[in-house]
User: Fold Thiol-disulfide oxidoreductase DCC family protein from Bacillus kandeliae.
Amino acid sequence: MSKIVLFDGECNFCDRSVQFIIKRDPNAYYKFASLQSDIGQQLVATYKVPFTLDSMLLIDGKRCYHKSTAALRICKHLSGGWKLFYYLLIIPRPVRDGVYTWIAKNRYKWFGKKAHCMIPSPEIRKRFL
Assistant:
């Protein structure tokens, strides 16, 4: 069963993160949607995600993960050594989320915003909701 990664479609860092995941997900385990899209907004409402939450989300069955937990759970199904990052979940969540929040607050300043979404190839386009 595919898992859904929701990301900030205006964020260059988030876009690069999605490209990173796609390159390391040869079995197309993950599907993607921007938080700003209709489906993204529907999923946010369905999973009762607070509007103020500034995070990438991972929808996995009936569960919705956010912040560092989402990022590390995504790593579990990536190819290569990236799987090892999953085990960082043993670090207490407040510590992990503190680092995640710091990066999230500065991502526009460090990486900028996009005016347009990327246009994926037809093969990759199938993975976007």
